[in-house]
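Chain A, query sequence.
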Amino acid sequence: MRALLLVLAALVLFIEEWGWRPLTAFVARLAKWPPLARFEALVRAAPPRIALLLFLAPAVALFPIKLLALWILSRGHALLGITVIVVAKLLGTAIVGRLFILTESQLMHFAWFARALTWWRATKLRLMEALRRSAAWRGARRLKTRWRAWRRRWRGLDEQDG
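Chain A, predicted structure.
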């Protein structure tokens, strides 16, 4: 059971590391556009309750889209339904990630939020430590090291030929 939970935790951390961060960075680049930059300034200045509403808005807004995707799936259009779900998830992750960065200081005014975030960060550290100690993680790291060494050798041969 512990191994299964570790795998699930690894998936959550993978999504956060390889989904949340790049998508949030992408939205941050988009926010250099003056109208979005002005909107972000308003979000940063919002009082805590408004910040909470803004932070939760994407989840609420995307819920009907996810229901639509389920309806599409039920109609036998698996590829389209899955595509809608994946796009909604990516869009939601990008927007929620950026909103979190913009509203974190306001959200920390809520004791329940501060406790939840503190718990999540501590749990994430414990999970990462457990993952790094696991045989699967160590094996994957060895594989990654071998792959990089092989790639460097291959590129070196390729450059000598060219």
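The chain has six helices and no strands. The mean pLDDT is 85.
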